[in-house]
Amino acid sequence: MQEHLPHASHEPAIGRTVQYYIDERPNWPDGTPVPVTPMTAMQWRIWGLAAAGKFFEGLVVFMTGVAMPLIANEFGLGAVEHGVVGAASLAGILVGALLLGGLADQFGRKLMFIVEMVLFIIFLMLLSVAPSYVWLVVFLFGIGLALGCDYPTAHLIISESIPTSARGRLVLGAFAFQAVGALVGTGVGYVVLTIDSDVTAWRWMYAAAIIPAMLVLAGRFFVTESAPWLFARGRKHEAEHETARLLQRKPAYPKKVVLSAPHKVEAGATGWMALFNRRNRRATILASVPWFLQDLSTYGIGIFTPTILAATLGHDSGNARNIAEIIQNDIAAAEGAAMIDVLLIVGIIFAVALADRVGRVPLQILGFIGCAAGLLIASFSAYYDGAMGTALIFIGFMMFNFMTNLGPNAQTYLLAGEVFPTAIRGKGAGFAAAFAKMGAVLTAFGFPILLASLGQQMLLFGLVAMSLLGAAVTWWFRIETTGVSLDEVGAHGHHAGKVPIPDSALAEL
C-alpha cells in the first residue's frame, strides 16, 4: 500500500503543519513522485550532533565497567561502595531525564540540547581529577544529569525535524551510537590500560572524551530550534522562520513557509499530571514500564560484563595480589567484553533496518523474548566447568546484546519520543527515561551485592523473568507508531483501549 505522504503538488489533508512541509516529496516532470523525501544539510547536522550525545552515553557508562577495578583499588571500595559508583551516573540520568529533559517543553529543545553538553563537559573534567570516593560519586552523578537530559532532548530534536517515513531509521540510527560508544569505551579502557599500568589510569579513560565533547558543543549552537515546539507554544512566525532554515536547499524549496494548525486538534493539559490522564495513560505505561524492565537487564549485564567474565575466566580482581595483576585481569576482561559488545552494534543495525518495516511493537516483543533466551543460556554455565561454561556465558551474553538492541533497548527509546503529543512530548519521554533508569540504578547498585549473595545463576534467572514480563506488558499496552506522523499523534492522543494504526503502517506490519 502506498504511503499517504504529501507531494509538492498536493494540497494537505490537514493544516499546513511543520511536518507537512518536512514530509513533502517532489515530483518528476511527468508527475511521478520521487520515492524518498530529500533531507537537507541542517537535518543531517541535527542528526549527527544528536547521535554524538548517545555515543558519549555508551562511552562513559560502559567504560565504567573497565575502570571499576582500578577505582575500587584506589579508593578501597567494598561491595556497597562498588554498587554506589556503578549506580551514580545512572541515578544522575534518572534525575536529569525527569527534571532537565522535561524543561525542553518549557524552554525549547535547542537550549537544553546545549545545556546538557555544557554540564557533561564540566563534570567530565572534574571526574578526571576526583580527589576522593565521595567526589567521584558526585561527579559521576553530574555526568548522569547531562546524559539524562539528552534522552528526551536528542530524540525530540531529531524526530521533530525529519520526515515521518524515515523517523524510525534515523532516530534509531542516532541511538545506535550508544552501542558504538560502548564498544569504543571498552576499547579506550583497554588502550589506556596497555599504555599506563598505574592504578590511576582510569582518570585518562574519562579525560579522553573531553575534547570531542567540546567539538560537539560548538556544533549545537548552530542548529535550528524545533519548529513544532515553537508552533505549539503559539510562536507562529518563529516557527515559520525555523522551518525555512531547516529546509534550506538549492534550489530553494519551499519558497515560503506558511503554517496553520492541523485539523481535529484535541486540546489537553500540559502539566506533569497530563501524563496520567485518560488520554495519555496508555502511552505513559507503554513508554515507561517495558523500558524499566529492559534496563534491569541491559545495564546490569553491560556494566558488570567485565566483572562476570573475569570471574568466569579465573581472573577475578578480588584475588589479585598486586596492581600489575589487577591491570592484567582488567585487560583480559575488557577483551572479552569488547567481543560481546560488538553484538550491540549488530543488533542496532538490524533494528534500524526493520523498525519502519516490521514495526516497533513486534520488534520489542521479539527482543524481550530473545533477551530471556540469551540470559537463560548464560545461566546454564553454572552446570559446567572450563571451556563449556565459558562458552555458554559468551553465547548467552552475545545473544542478549543482539536481541536487546534489536528490540527493547532500541524500541523503548523510539516509542517514548513518539507516543505523546508535542506539548508534553518532552515530559513524557523524560518521565519514561527516568522511570527506566530507576531499574538501571537498582541493578547497578544491587547487582554486585546480589551477585555475591545469590550467585550468578539465580541473578540471571531473575532477569529472565523480567524480560518475559516486559514482552507481556508491551503486548497488553501496545501502540504502534510506525508510519504515523507526529501531527496525528498530537491530534488524536491514545485513549485507553484505542490503538491507532494507519493503513500505511498496517501494510508494513
UniProtKB/TrEMBL annotation:
One of its GO terms (cellular component) is membrane. It is found in: Membrane. Residues 46-482 form the Major facilitator superfamily (MFS) profile domain. One of its GO terms (molecular function) is transmembrane transporter activity. Keywords: Membrane, Transmembrane, Transmembrane helix, Transport. The chain crosses the membrane at residues 46-72, 84-104, 111-130, 136-158, 170-192, 204-223, 331-355, 361-384, 391-408, 428-451, 458-477. The keyword Transmembrane applies. The keyword Transmembrane applies. It is a multi-pass membrane protein. Its main location: membrane. Pfam families: Sugar_tr. InterPro entries: MFS_dom, MFS_sugar_transport-like, MFS_trans_sf. Belongs to the major facilitator superfamily. Sugar transporter (TC 2.A.1.1) family. This is Predicted arabinose efflux permease, MFS family. It comes from Ancylobacter rudongensis. The lineage of its organism: Bacteria, Pseudomonadati, Pseudomonadota, Alphaproteobacteria, Hyphomicrobiales.
